[in-house]
Amino acid sequence: MKIRQGTICVVLALAAATVASAQENELAWTMERAIKQLDRQGSDFESVLAEVDVDWSGGASEAAQIKGGRIYINGKGEFRLNADSPAQRTVLLDGNTVHHYDPQAKLVKEYSLSKHKDRLEVFVPLGFSTTGKKLDDDFLVTFIGEDTIGDRRTLGLELTPKNDKMRAVVSRIQIWVDESSWLPARQVITQSSGGQVLTVTYSGTARNLELNRDLFDDNWPKGTEKERM
């Protein structure tokens, strides 16, 4: 059977294009390029607003029952999570304190991070207000593959703390980054001891809106009692 020279040329061209495409895809996700993309995202980050789904398993945290809501994060790494259920609870990270507000009980519990170093909420802003260089400085960053979350193609990064004190709190953090915006689509934060795993999934993300500063203040309705933990 004779094979025409033109056919051979076409086959070779297709093979070369396939190899080039594979090489291009491989090069596209070098760690250096990923860190640069995260740097661009984090360098001019001011705020984010997103819908969230929260799953806090393996612990008796107040946040364990929060299954949906809206989160606001500012450039300082502070955030406010207003839960849809149960009973429109609020989680606020304000400076060095985590607040859990229960409107039904008219009670807000305040956790000082200097005393409660094992709070996982402090890691939620990672990937938003943190530059790629900062992530690379504080964590061993490795690729864990690609995945589709909703209609978004995401790149998975696993962060292992370099600092012994931080590693005593969390063993690893997985961040699935939306490849179109380079903002987190999902975070999986695993506690080193105690068995808690905090998973936050983001959707409808809007970046650099002008958020009301009052969102990040610990102002609660009149009659609310404070319990310092």
As for the CATH topology, it is outer membrane lipoprotein receptor (LolB), chain A
**What is the overall pLDDT average?**
83
Task: Just name the CATH architecture.
Answer: Clam
* Beta-strand percentage range: 35-45%
Count the beta strands: 12
| Shape by Cα distribution | globular
Trace the largest sheet across and list its strands: 7-8-9-10-11-1-2-3-4-5-6-12
Structural class call reads alpha+beta
CATH superfamily: Lipoprotein localisation LolA/LolB/LppX
Tally of separate helices? 4
For the largest beta-sheet, the strand count, sense and barrel status come to: 12 strands, mixed
Unreliable runs, pLDDT <50, ≥5 residues?
7-27
| Total individual domains | 1
Could you characterize what this model shows?
- The chain is an alpha+beta fold and 229 residues long.
- It has one domain: outer membrane lipoprotein receptor (LolB), chain A, CATH 2.50.20.
- It has 4 helices and 12 strands, in the order H-H-E-E-E-E-E-E-H-E-E-H-E-E-E-E.
- Helix 2 (31-43) packs across helix 3.
- It starts with a helix and ends with a strand.
- The relative contact order is 0.18.
